[in-house]
Write a structure and sequence with these properties.
Elements lengths: L12 H13 L6 H17 L1 H12 L3 H27 L2 E3 L8 E9 L2 E5 L7 H12 L3 E5 L5 H14 L5 E3 L4 H8 L5 E5 L2 H11 L6 E4 L5 E4 L5 H13 L11 E5 L3 H16 L15 H11 L3 E4 L3 E2 L4 E2 L2 E4 L16 E7 L3 H7 L7 E5 L3 H10 L4 E4 L20 E2 L4 H7 L1 E9 L16 H9 L2
Parallel strand pairs: 3-4, 3-6, 4-5, 6-7, 8-9, 8-15, 9-14, 13-14, 15-16
Antiparallel strand pairs: 1-2, 2-18, 7-17, 10-13, 11-12
Helix pairs in contact: 2-4, 2-6, 3-4, 3-6, 4-5, 5-14, 9-10
The structure holds nicotinamide-adenine-dinucleotide.
Length: 467
């Protein structure tokens, strides 16, 4: 599997940022037609490199070509197409209603790019999670510096090559390297920071940018519950969960972390999961071209340790030579075990059961707000009650993961799974300051607000009551 990437010792980060500041301040990113032209070029280059993107992800962690297309390239191309189509409209000042207080006036919201944006990305969807926020930031008229993950070196290098083909580096640059490069980047003053990664590193990022009061989005992780009610269509639930849990070998921030199922349905569910795993990956899963590997030895060992002492329902095979871990179901792990402490982020699915509904809440409330929550139920009342009851980033009923694919839905966390959202128009808004502008008329000047105030209080009270 992939070797870790070397740091780009040759890049002078303060100098590169200074060139981006100069580029922005000279107004070079403001022309909307130019932004659209660059995004179109980015789209063309990505389309021309579709095969190379698949090969890079295969080199990094044997990600199947189908999964790379569906979850990385196609998502990015669709985001680009949509942004190119809508950008002119989004970038226009919006007229809003004015109020009696500042009559006569015409009031507007002017979209204003923040300036110089830093994007720090993780390894698990290394292309999509580096490029998707960059599309929003560039569409909104910012400059961008992207630091993709050191753990997906082939994809990170290709991302750099793609951006270098489309943008001068004072407009958008990709910097390769690990933690030291991230740290040096975080020492600089940015106008916006967009971080995707783990909760502990999210905290480091938030702390590092606090002295400059830098606005930010943190896209983090968590333990995502997947609740299965007795009314659920168990076979379909098993099929969809097998897909969403084992895609990318479980290394998906919104994959179900653990299943919480009605005790009476547990055996039916685990049997259905076994046959769905077989249907998807065959008898010899290790030989399946449709099953990815764990990104590196460190994560492989972390996951392997989670299996120790557990009752395996199915799977459990591991092979360190190629960082393979079979799709694995474990039975009722204790809450003290490692697998129930932190986000799993791999192809291991604990199956917990409940007898009475109040037990669900007790289990979910053990953990901080998750990034996603899923509920499988034909009982609409139960489903709706569950979706409304808990705080989580986003989710689905009767499916998993799919909410990420709709660009009309903002994607992001809440509480410890992060803050801010993006995709589609939400990406443009994330990277845009909304400037309030009142355009006052000069043909009338109502004297009420001016001192001396003597005798004016009753009148202002009357006016304010009408608002
Ligand atoms: P990570 O937090 O280890 O790394 C993310 C980025 O931060 C990398 O570019 C890395 O170089 C950098 N980094 C690491 N340590 C740092 C430090 N001490 N100081 C500054 N920068 C540092 O995350 P990861 O292992 O790459 O990704 C897995 C995590 O990301 C999981 O927790 C997953 O849930 C989360 N994730 C969230 C989303 C989302 O959209 N919310 C998407 C994918 C992954």
């Amino acid at each position: 599997m992939a070797e870790e990437i070397k740091n780009e010792a040759t890049v002078n980060i303060p100098e590169l940022l200074a060139s981006q500041k100069e580029f922005f301040e000279a107004g070079n990113t403001l022309d909307v037609s130019e932004r659209i032209a660059r995004l179109k070029k980015l789209k063309n280059v990505i389309e021309s490199k579709e095969q190379e993107i698949s090969a890079a992800l295969f080199a990094d962690f044997r990600k199947p070509e189908f999964e790379t297309y569906a979850t990385e390239t196609a998502l990015i191309l669709s985001e680009l197409k949509y942004t190119i189509k809508k950008l002119r409209k989004w970038a226009k000042p919006k007229k809003v209603k004015s109020t009696l207080l500042n009559f006569p006036s015409k009031d507007f919201i002017y979209p204003q790019p923040y300036g110089n944006v830093l994007i720090l990305a993780p390894w698990n969807y290394p292309f999509q999670l580096s490029v998707s926020p960059a599309i929003g930031a560039l569409a909104a008229g910012n400059t961008v510096m992207i630091k993709p993950s050191e753990y997906a070196p082939a994809t990170s290098s290709l991302t750099k090559e793609i951006f270098a083909e489309v943008f001068p580096e004072e407009h958008a640059a990709v910097l390769l390297g690990g933690v030291e490069v991230s740290q040096e980047l975080l020492e600089q003053k940015w106008d916006y920071v967009f971080f995707t990664g783990s909760v502990p590193v999210g905290r480091i990022v938030a702390k590092a940018i606090a002295p400059n009061l830098t606005p930010s989005t943190l896209e983090l992780g968590g333990k995502n519950p997947c609740i299965i009610h007795r009314s659920a269509k168990i076979d379909l639930a098993a099929k969809r969960i097998v897909w969403g849990k084992f895609i990318n070998a479980g290394q998906t921030c919104i994959s179900p972390d653990y299943v919480l199922i009605d005790k009476k349905k547990k055996t039916e569910f685990t049997e259905a999961v076994k046959s769905e795993i077989k249907a998807a990956f065959g008898e010899e899963i290790k030989k399946s071209p449709d099953y990815a590997r764990i990104i590196n030895r460190k994560n492989f060992e972390r996951l392997q340790a989670m299996l120790e002492g557990q009752t395996i329902i199915t799977g459990g095979e591991t092979s360190p030579g190629d960082n393979y871990i079979a799709p694995t179901l474990i039975n009722e792990p204790s809450f003290d075990s490692e697998v129930m402490q932190d986000e799993i982020f791999g192809p291991i699915l604990p199956v917990l059961s409940y007898s009475e509904e109040p037990e669900i809440e007790k289990i979910i409330s053990r953990y901080p707000d998750p990034l996603a929550l899923y509920v499988f139920a034909e009982d609409k009342e139960f489903s709706e009650k569950t979706l409304q009851r808990y705080r989580f980033g986003g989710g689905a009923s009767n499916d998993v993961v799919v909410h990420i694919a709709n660009k009309n839905l903002p994607f992001g966390g809440v509480g410890s799974s992060g803050y801010g959202g993006y995709h589609g128009k939400f990406s443009f808004e994330t990277f845009t300051h909304k400037k309030s502008i009142s355009k006052r008329a000069t043909w009338l000047d109502i004297p009420l607000r001016y001192a001396p105030y003597k005798g004016k209080l009753p009148l202002i009270k009357k006016v304010m009551k009408r608002l």
